[in-house]
Amino acid sequence: MVSPELLIQHGFVKGLYKKGVLDQSLFNQYYDFKEGAVSLVNKSGLKDLKPDEEVWEEVQEAWVKTGYPSPRKRFRLIWEVYDLSIEESYYWVLKYLRHDAAHPVVEKLEDTFSAAEASASFGVTQQRLGAQQDKVSQFLVAIGKMVKELFAMVRELRIIDERKGYYQETEEQMNRPRGQRLKGGETTLKGVFIDMVQGGAKSAASVYGMARELEFVTLPDLFFEAPPFVNSYEMEEWVDNLEFNEKVKRVLKRHLKNFMEWKKSTWKELKGRRKFQLQYLRQHFDIIKLYMEWTKPYLRNIQRLGIKKEHMASPDIIAAFEGSMIDIELLARRPFGDPKAGGCYACVVATLNYRTRPQMKFIQEGYQRGPVHQGKMEMNVRGYIWNEAQVQAYKNMKDRESFELLKVVSASVTAAMEALGDELFGYLEEAGEDVERKGEEKAVVNKGLIEKLFGDFIVSKGAKKVKRKKVSGKDEGAWGAAENYNKLHLWNVHNNFKKAHRLIAW
Questions:
Q1: Kind and range of the H or E element at 430?
Q2: Contact by Cβ (8 Å): 64, 56
Q3: Mind giving me the DSSP string for 376-396?
Q4: Are 443 and 282 contacting, i.e. CB atoms less than 8 angstroms apart?
Q5: In the chain, what is the greatest distance between 2 CA atoms, to the nearest angstrom?
Q6: Dihedral of CA 99/103/105/108: which sign?
Q7: Which of 114, 283, 366, 379 has the fewest CB atoms within 10 Å, i.e. is most exposed?
Q8: What is the pLDDT of residue 91?
């Protein structure tokens, strides 16, 4: 059941509708549009708004809130017979909505199943659920390891960028006169050269080692005092002008020449290494996204095969009985005008709730044993007149409701990745730009990290402050035609179902 908060967050607010039909002018005061979704813009906050929730007389003189937006009309049918085949009734409704009522778009928004704990159907379902869970656990372990590796990759890029800054600072000084060149970046690189290439002070061949072992006391000072040089000729000229003996000058030239060659080669290597590391980071991130895409179908299956709490708490299911409950929801719609520009859809939300007694049978030789469901059906059909944004908002709301628990699965992964923060975003964006220049599609940093990986399961908390787009005026003719069409076929799906199944009907 959808909570009142979800109804409000997705645009179903009291006062915006009259008998299920949207007041477009009032709607535009509350909402902005972005990528077909609805984003609430109410400065007073959600607390001052009330949900436009349906109140229905469930039984005589007992009115309850159903969790659905208030429809313009609703019909309910309860059919209970011992040998009722649920497959036939479902496909009858689907065929009628799609063909007879001429709704070209029919989408399944909910498909859940629960079985009594002692039933044979429960055992078969749990076996299949266990196989799906094992597969998901394997994928999530692999994803966790790859996310952990991201930290090391970002750290390496950070070190490369730090070293890159020293080289760039040195290069910038080359355009200045030799006597005015700053030595900060060059001095740092000389320290790295002595420690990593020459082996530090412990090595007798290093600058510090020769000063200690061979008494070249002034060599370290002269080595670090030397400014950045454009070429070897400039370096030799500077050394030759020093007032020291030739032996010291000769050794100094050797060390400076080694350093200049090392700096040149490592600078080239560093740029190539950084480019490779960026592409590797992007490839690594794309593999994580690929694993998540592989994981999503299994997560959906787990959600559908999992036990629905509302069903297990219902008195309609007894643990010792061979019983099960199935919930199916369809959204059928037919466009009138352009739903994105003043037009609308005639929408039918058909909810089929089954209480069944599954019988395990072999349908054909060699096939797996599976349940044949027989029992009670409750069908509710609700009529709405929605535009494109409202349809998308309702679908988002159902996704939010259906996959609310799946956020727990992704929480640890997303928390770890977000710990890297903007630094990861920056490197991915840079890698994406390089790929884009080669003619490939830029696939990163357009959405938040959570949304990028788990967008099918969760609704982003962001985008509350979006750029307002002017919505075109309401097409009164299209909305009027949609109302008449919806009224006719909402009644027909209920009445013709009764006629087709030999029930009392008008």
A1: helix 422-437
A2: yes
A3: EEEEEEEEEEE-HHHHHHHHH
A4: no
A5: 118
A6: negative
A7: 366
A8: 92
Rounded Cα–Cα distance for residues 61 and 51 (Å) = 22
To the nearest 10°, the Cα dihedral for 275, 290, 399, 395?
A: 80
The set of residues, in sequence order, having a beta carbon less than 8 Å from that of 387 and lying 6+ positions away, is 22, 339, 340, 343, 344, 345
**Euclidean distance between CA atoms 262 and 11, whole angstroms:** 64
Quick check: 311 pLDDT over 80? no
Q: How many other CB atoms are found less than 10 A from the CB of residue 435?
A: 17
- Residue 453 has phi, psi (to 5 degrees) of -90, -35
- Please state the pTM of the whole predicted model: 0.54
Tell me the Cα Rg of the chain: 35
138's CB contacts (< 8 A; 6+ apart) are: none
Long-range contacts of 103-107 (CB under 8 A, 24+ apart): 103/332, 103/333, 103/334, 103/346, 103/348, 103/489, 104/334, 104/335, 105/332, 105/333, 105/334, 106/330, 106/331, 106/332, 107/330, 107/331, 107/332, 107/395
Helix (H, G, I), strand (E, B) or coil at 52: coil
Give tens-digit pLDDT for 130-188: 777 888 888 878 887 888 888 888 888 888 888 888 888 888 888 788 777 788 888 88
Cα–Cα distance measured from residue 375 to residue 383, given in angstroms and rounded to the nearest whole number = 27
CA dist 481 → 187, 203, 488 (Å): 79, 90, 11
